Fold each of these.
Amino acid sequence: MNLDFTRVFSDAIPLLLEGTKTTIGIAIISILAGLLVGFVSCLMGISKNPVLRGISKAYVWVIRGTPMIVQAFFVFYAIPAVFPGVTPSAFVSGFVTLTLNAGAYLSEIIRGGIQAVPVGQTEAARSLGLSAFKTKIKVVLPQAFKIAIPSMVNQFIITVKDTSILSVISLDEIVNNAKKSIGMNYKFFETYILVAVFYLVIISALMVLSKYIEKRMNNERKG
Amino acid sequence: MSEKVKVVGLEKHFGDLVVLDGIALTVGEGEVVCIIGPSGSGKSTFLRCINRLETATGGQIFVDDQEITSKKIDINKARENIGMVFQQFNLFANYTVLENIMLAPVELKKMNKAQAKAKAMELLTRVGLADKADNYPNQLSGGQQQRVAIARSLAMNPDIMLFDEPTSALDPEMVGEVLQVMKELAAGGMTMIVVTHEMGFARDVADRVIFMADGGIVEQGTPTEIFSNPQNQRTKDFLSCVL
């Protein structure tokens, strides 16, 4: 096997760095928006209102039941077809896709966290006279989030990697820019080794950050 | 003695299973009532109906002449006056001891933060745990957690306290410290309904002992009547097992 990185470095690295900016940028805003969507969907899913529950269930069902590549194509091509004149950019389509996707999984993760809080916590709060709403906000959700943090971090990592799927709608993230570089020098193997290294570095940084946050939260608790 | 709690024909079914079968009971102000009986007799379910943690299937419960079982009442408001202590303590894991006690008075706007803190420290001193104010529940022993749980209930200045097997989850050496707090509470004139397996406590502290079996009240009377001279065969069988 013959690896030749000489041209690959000069062709690929500027493009991959450019792509990294897009990858990280779209991942961050999609994770933040996804957290909001997931939280709202979760609250709807556990509410007493059957319509809200139904909407949340249907949303999670559709997202979990379809591949993200299909969702990306759907958002990219279906929106202009349904709303003539509206042509979302690859970035906006990608953002919407990632947000909806992460939101559905986060909704389930947060729900799992809520269910893991012992029912006695709720009973104690209610017995003191706290309303169901205040009990959720003050007692259940803070504990649920703490329980859910490891699973949420896992989902964040998946979301970062899922940005690569958005290359199919020509978002200039890492993978799509790698393809451009390959178009110049036909060095598939070498380029994808570099791509893998780029992802490993990004995800490792995210893991270090999450460990640090988890540690700080635990220290806070110990007082 | 004025009526504090009045229960009329209380029934509770879980599907086909009849857990409470027509309970009638009146508890006077300042009275300490201990409920004893075999497990599965409905003691805890009965207690939990009084603050509507369980909804009754039939019958009525009045606390301070307010019908708890009525759909129209503001149950949150009613619960402010009914303290409850649980077998598993149920201290809020995300708050310190002090914050546990302050939460309800501050959130329900009964006190401002400074008042609530002063009240919480006073209660912690009363249960002998002032030095644990800034600890988290998981740093406390079971007995300490239960004493904090009692203080947390008292912070709302309830008229009535419900105790659901408060010492059953404790290591034996910690039972005494919790019972001591409850004794002081009883001596202070608190109306208390206590589901317990501590026969010694029932004998020493209760004004009235109720023996429940199969979802009904089988026998009731003063501790002396129940423990020294039980009339019903089921009471006799139960006491011969536990005493």
Amino acid sequence: MKKAIKLFFIMLKIGLFTFGGGYAMIALLENEFVSKRNWMSDGEFAEMVAIAESTPGPIAINAATYIGYRQKGVFGAVLSTIAVCIPSFAVIYVISLFFNEFLKIAWVAAAFRGIQAGVVVLISLAGIKMFIKMKKSLFNVLVAAATFICMIMFSLFAVDFSSVFYILISAVSGLLIFLVKRMRERKKRSENNDIS
Amino acid sequence: MIYLKLFLTFLKIGAVSFGGGYGMISLIREEVLAAGWLPEKELVDFIAVSESTPGPVAVNMATFIGSSQAGMTGALTATAGVVLPSFIIILLIAALVKKIAEYAGVKAVLGAVTPAVTGLITATAAILFLSCVTGLRTVGDRATCDWKALIITAIILLVAAVYRKIRKKSFPPALLLLISGGLGIALYL
């Protein structure tokens, strides 16, 4: 029980101090669970990061659920997921109560017109960074370019096409290419076997 | 029933958002505009708030939109919706298939999703840029040019680029938003 309470407060702290997305949080988690307390090994931690990054959903939530489960089972998973959400939930809930009033102040409204431009820059930088990091295979570049162009065109001509479809289509084509490749390899292998 | 709609909408967003907070912005934007929950500019304002407060952007957005539509209960249902898919998926992986990320088939699917998300994020940025600077949402809207927004964009791009060159790491988002807010006061007030 003592460990559960500790887990709860560590996650609460991490939820409170992670600004700027999930990656900042990975360093905090490493510090708390590997360096300071030795609750996880380096290998286990790396495995957790790989899983948190490659599954859908916010990395912070994925990491909290995984670590919680490893420490205290399903109860630990529920506990740490709730704990990591509480700070943002409380802060945002309070902000949401006053946000519209706040925006009515002249200088705040002016600031937010500038901030809108800043947000556009932030999103562009995130996209560009992701593109630079992406492996530039023919498939990847084609999918990225096609998604980019289609989404802008559909938006300009008010065609209703959800982002979900781009993700599903690329996932299915990735799987199909993988299956075709594997079938070819198998065929080749069995042909080679026939000759020998 | 607004609670159910909030819950299901954010459940969908939580289930298909790969690649961190920015990956879900395109979907959140579509859903929020389609439901008429917030106008575009307010949504962008709120992306800024989500970026500069602690916690995952997705959770922040869900809490805010839920609260703005249906108070505390709305905030709770939307947040529960966006968290639940990750929670269930991770629990299944942790309990049953720890090595799932190593299967070749799973790798192929995840690898294929990344470029699509890259396209989604860059396209969302372009769409937001068009609508914030020129007021152009769909073909046929009369385009105007907000040159002040263009100046702000140019200045922060420059600052971010210089920072990157000197410090060799990306510009902190909160600082970037602070500067653009200052420029907004200087130019629009």
